[in-house]
Structures are given as C-alpha cells and as structure tokens.
Amino acid sequence: MSEQESTTESVLRIQTAKPEIPIDTPMRRWIMQWGTAVVGGVTAVGDLAMFTWQMFVWMFTRMPRRDTVLVNFYQVGVLSLPVVALTGSFIGMVLAVQSYYQFHTIGLETHLGVVINTSLVRELGPVLAATMLAGRVGGAMAAVLGTMRVTEQIDALTTMGADPIHYLVVPRFMACLFLIPALTIVADFMGIVGGYFYSVIILGIDRAAYLHHSREGVVAFDLFNGIFKSIFFGGVIAIISCYRGFNCQPGAEGVGKAATEAFVYSFVMILAIDLFLNIVLDWVYFSFYPEGTSLF
Amino acid sequence: MSDSNPPIDPFEQDASETQAEESAVAVAERPLVEVENLEVTFDGQTVLKDIDCQIERGQTVAVIGESGCGKTVFMKTIVALVQPTVGRVMFDGQDLSGLSPAELAVVRRRFGFVFQHAALFDSMNIFDNVAFPIRQNEEGVDEAEINDRVRQHIGEVGLPEEVIYKRPAELSGGMQKRVGLARALVLRPELVVYDEPTTGLDPIMSDVINELILNTRRMYPVTSIVVTHDMHTARKVADRVMMFYPRRRLELDQSQILFDAPPSQLEHAEDRRVRQFVRGEAGDRIREMSQGMG
C-alpha cells in the first residue's frame, strides 16, 4: 500500500511539476511577438469577414430607408463628380505628354489615341478613380463613423433599436458599389477628352487619323474590364472604410488613424484586386479573342 | 359553429381568472432588472465580477463609484451594449444574452438611454434626432403625430421650440443633454438609464437635469438607473444608491458592491471607503497611486 501511495505521489508530482522554462528569453519574446501578431491578424480578418457577412445579410433581407440611401448617393456620387472629372482629364493629358515623343520618333503619333484610351479604360481610369475615391470617400467614411463611435452615436443607434450596420454601412456600401463604376465611366470619358484635347489641339496631331485609330484600338471588352473591376474597388473601399470607422480607437488620434488606415488598406486592396482580376479577365478575354487585338 | 363549443364552467372560469390575476401580480412584483453572477472581462482584465442585484419597478437607483470601477460597463451590460462574460442580465424576466439581434432590438424599445455627452446625431437637426426613435420603431406613424410628440417632449424638457431646427453643435452642453433626455423618453420607455447626466454642467444646469429626472419619474411610471459621480444628484434623485469599487483593488473574496442602501444611510456607511467617497476625501489614494495600485 505504501509503495502504491509513493508511486501515486510521484506520478502526481511529475504531472503537476512545472517545466523549467526560463521566463524571459529572446526566443520566448520572439515567439510571443509573432504569436500575438498572428492571432491579432487572424482575429482581425475573421472580424472583418463577420462584419461583411452581416452587411450582406442586412442588404438582402431589409433595404435601408430611402433618405439614408439618397444622402450617401449624393455624398459619394454628386460631390465626387468634379474631382473625378478633373483627375480623369489630367490623366488623359499626362498620358499624351508622356507618350507623344516616343511615338513621334517612330512616326506613329496618330496612334496615340489608342494607347491613351486603352490604358485609360482598362487600367488607369478605374485604378486612379478608385484611388482618388478611397481618399475622398473612404477617408471621410472612416472619419465620420469613427467620430460617431467615439461620441457614442453608434451606441445610441443600437439603444434605439436600429442596427448600426444596417443603418450606416449598407447605404454607404450601396453608394460605393453603384456609383464608383459610374464615376469610373466619367473618369474614362474625361481622360479620353483630355487626351484628345492635348494630342489634337496642343500637339497638332491629325484629328481624323487620331479618331480613326482610337476607335479601332479599343474594344467593348476593354470598357467592360475597367467597369467590372471598379465594382469590386467600390465594394472594398466601402467595407474597409466602414470597418475601420466602426473599430476606431478613442480620441482625435484614433479618428485620424482610422481615416489614414482606411485609405492605405483600401489602396493596397485595390491594387491586389486589380492584379487578381486582370489575371482572371485576361484569361476570359483570350477565351473570347484567341488571336487578341493589336494596338497598331 | 357556436354549438360545437363546450359549455363554460363558471367555476373553471373563476379559476382561470384567478390564475391570470396571480400571474399578473407575479409579473408586477418581479423586479424589472435582475443581474445574476455577472462578470465582464475585456482583454483579460476583469472589470466586473460576481455582481448580483435586482432593480425593482419604479425604483430610481444611483450607481456611484470612482472612475474605472465599472459602473458604466454595468450600465451598458444592462442594456445589452456589452455582453456578459459570465452570468446573465434579465429584463422583465427575459435573459438578454439569449436574444437574437432582432429580438434585442424589440426589447430595446423599452429602454431609454441618456448618454454622458448626449450622443446626438450631428447629421440631423434636433427635431429629427428626437423623432428618430419613433421613425425607427413605429411604422406607419404619420408626420403630424411625430411632429406633435416631438414638440411635446421638447417642451417637457424645458427647451424652446426655436431649437428644433438647429443642429446639435449649435446648442450648449445642458441643452444637448435635455435633447438627449427628450429623445430617450419619446417612446415612453420602462427603463431609463442616465450615464453621468450632470457631468460637465454648471451647478444650476446640473440641478435642472436633476429636476427633469424627478419630473420624468412623476410623469411616467419609469424605472431609472443613474450612473453618476455627483453626490448631490445621487442624494436628490435616487431612492437607492449602489457603490461600486474597482475590481483590481479588491481581494478575490471581497464584493465589488460596497454599499447598497437608501441615500440617507450614505453618511453612516460602515465601510470607510464609502464614507471617503461620499465626502470626496483622497485619503490614502495619492500614496496608493504613487505605488502603482490604482
């Protein structure tokens, strides 16, 4: 019996004994820092996924009130129009300036329009319009929602029986989803006008030849490519900006940080989505047009 | 069709009426808020632990305590803005943590919440702020009725009609708090929660808010929870005072609620910490803070 007891005691002693690991070593600190970063990252992605899921559930189960939708459509669409139009026209002109001397040296300056227009509708129009809107619209969304979080206005909504995601996020998401593609079309159009103006009016390229080559070089799929991507850009700007605003830290610094991060994360995601969708859309394009199209 | 119905036994009918009356009495006697074994933890830090209390219908409870003692968390847990880590909060016999967001939204119509800094919506004028709960929760109410109710509540908190088309930023702190009170009362809630209603106001405006809390209680059959640092407010409006103490400064077996009695007993509290708080004396706090204990 006593032998059995001593065996049990020794087993217990082994089971309860703490391993002798030094408390603070560089390796331990390194593992802890990485562990914290990984857990934090996974938690944030999960939280963002839940946030997005809740938004889609609300969007497809109960439409937000008309007045909240209209206000956001006005702020995203109408108020962004001048800056997007201006940006678009400058991009078109800059492309003309940058490309002219290269094309002129090989005598192909009449083909300038096709390069400007293709670059604009496929890539620069959607990406630069989305970047501009991530700053103007996304930053503002994060700042407004962050301020509402800090001043307890989001809690006030909850206590009055309103779901903050339904009331605040869904209208903003809808505004970005529908109007950023529309603004991209405006940016494309103004870029084409700007490119034409600089090439034909300032640089004196033959108008008829410029228009002829421009028309031939851009196919409907190019236009579709740009607009299709802008739908995703709009969605990601709204989700990231609203999420950052909702999770804003207290104080003026917290609101500033939320607005900055909303822009930075939106911009990174715009470029990542752009790469991914370009790969997918290229695959689709070459399925429809195995020969491809030539700019010249 | 009526022939197929069984005849009503008058004795059975009496019994069912008695049962209904008994259950109605039971509902009326049941506390409006019951907090059981509540624990709230944020990022590994326990703010509230082992909190048990009940708030009777019609009662006005002042929750006092120093900064960081968890009184705001307690209040937010009661209205389900914060979820308990352990334990539960029952409102009118309903466990709030077991409700879906849609069910919670329905229960929250029975709450009114007056925020510390009013939390009025900047994007709306005063009229729309006060009308918001009606538009959000009562479908089919026409604008004429909304207009009447908003003006009535604006009047009840002593604000002139001219303010209704102003923006919150154009009003003083006291006026904003009164708008917040009007907004909280517009749905005739059963429970009104005030988060530090007099903080940041001058003594006169603070007393105006105290009088409005008392008036609200006279006009409507509400239960109120007032979270405050202001002892004048606690004494004037409450018929029960609960004092919380920061969890980190207590031993494991000590209760976080140091005092739970009518305000008249505050001065005679047995606990030295309660008397110290009531009198506003620093006591050993400076030494404790310098030693990193508080």
User: Biggest interface and which pair forms it?
Assistant: A-B, 14 and 23 residues
Q: Using only CA atoms, what is the Rg of chain A?
A: 27 Å
As a percent range, the share of helical residues of chain A equals over 70%
The H-level CATH homologous superfamily of the largest domain in chain B, spelled out, is P-loop containing nucleotide triphosphate hydrolases
Give the helix proportion of chain B (percent range). Answer: 25-40%
Oligomer: heterodimer
Beta-strand content bin of chain A: under 5%
> For the terminal residues of chain B, how far apart are their CA atoms?
75 Å
Mean pLDDT of chain A: 88
Main sheet of chain B, how many strands, which sense, barrel? 6 strands, mixed
- Biggest sheet layout of chain A: none
- Would you tell me which CATH topology of the largest domain in chain B applies? Rossmann fold
DSSP E strands of chain A, number: 0
What features would you describe in this structure?
The complex is a heterodimer of chains A (296) and B (294). Chain A is an all-alpha fold. Chain A has one domain (65-286). Chain A has helices spanning 2-16, 26-61, 66-78, 81-105, 112-150, 153-159, 164-202, 207-217, 220-246, 251-288. Residues 1-5 of chain A have low confidence and may be disordered. Chain B is α/β, with parallel strands linked by helices and 294 residues long. Chain B folds into two domains: 32-110 and 192-265, 3-Layer(aba) Sandwich (Rossmann fold), CATH 3.40.50.300; 121-188, no CATH class. Helix content of chain B is 38%, strand content 20%. Chain B has helices at residues 10-29, 71-78, 101-108, 126-137, 143-156, 173-185, 203-219, 231-237, 272-279, 285-290; strands at 33-42, 45-55, 60-64, 86-91, 94-95, 111-114, 191-195, 223-227, 240-244, 257-261. Chain B has a six-stranded mixed beta sheet with strand order 6-7-8-3-9-10, sandwiched between helices. In chain B, strands 2-1-4-5 form a four-stranded antiparallel beta sheet, covered by helices on one side. Chain B is globular, with a radius of gyration of 22 Å. Chain B starts with 9 loop residues before the first helix and ends with a helix. Chain A: Belongs to the MlaE permease family. Chain A: It is a multi-pass membrane protein. Chain A: GO terms for molecular function: phospholipid transporter activity.
